[in-house]
């Protein structure tokens, strides 16, 4: 529980640097905190 909160706070503080995931092509993930960027619709 606390670990998840810590990860969430880390995501909030992170300056996201998105890159394309190798495991899921077409998915942008932050290379620092692993946060996924929602796919732009359209």
Task: Explain the overall architecture.
- The chain is 29% helix and 14% strand.
- The protein has one domain (1-42).
- A hairpin with a 7-residue loop joins strand 1 (18-20) and strand 2.
- It has 42 residues and is α+β, with helices and mostly antiparallel strands.
- A two-stranded antiparallel ribbon has the order 1-2.
Q: Please, what is the oligomeric state?
A: single chain
Strand arrangement across the biggest beta sheet:
1-2
The major pleated sheet works out as: 2 strands, antiparallel
Head-to-tail CA distance between termini = 36 Å
Total strands: 2
Strand content: 5-15%
Give a concise summary:
The chain has one helix at 2-13; strands at 18-20, 28-30. It is α+β, with helices and mostly antiparallel strands.
